[in-house]
Amino acid sequence: MSNESSRYLRVPSLLEQLARTQHPQTLAQLAQRLDLPKTTLMRMLRSLAESGLVVQTPNERGYVLGPRATRLALATLRTPSFSRSSRAILGQLVEVLGETCNLTTLDGDEIRYLERVETHHLLRLQLEVGTHVPLHCTASGKLMLASLEPAHCAQILSRIKLESFTPRTLTDRSRLETELADIRQRGLGIDREEFVLGMVAVAVPVLDAQKKVIAAVACHGPSARISLEFLLNSVPTLKKAALAMGAALGDDSVLW
Asked: Which residue stretches of the chain are H helix?
């Protein structure tokens, strides 16, 4: 490979390295892992920071992906080809579980519905694709929060209002942080009627090729018709669909 080609591949390699890690990476760590001189790496990081692709954390003196990188990732999840594949996967999931299923992702300080297939039952929660819902009281939202690097999660929690939507909403930050710690352990988000009274939900992560959480597959339904136990028992089926979602990012023909 020529020096010119190698130079152009440095930026994607740097962004991929930051995407793989859960913690901020220092200049020394990145230089060692990418086998680059610190002076060269510093110029790259400064340029990427100016464009919003990389952010330097103030306290840990490390680097993480920035808001522009997040927007690019969101744009990838909204491409027409992936949208068709994800709807097909959700459609199969609804046929098996009988309840509404969604594909969601983090969008700023909220959760965005990327795709959604409704149940045929008349009693259901109707939300349009593109709708934003809170992080702190939804199954997908808590799952995405728990998947973030701790400093990033703390920043979001300091910004958002822990608004009460039902008597079961967690509005105390310490209690919510305890819940997020539990979610990190079990790899599963649960909504116990915290967003809409009478609606329960479970969410599982969608991983990319680097095993990073990029989205969530969720199923929800009214507690008058289904129980949280039913949804928890359905987790293996949800995980199978989430695995197909991750594979579909690289192969639009993948179903499950």
From this structure: 3-20, 27-34, 38-51, 67-77, 80-97, 139-147, 150-159, 173-186, 228-233, 235-248
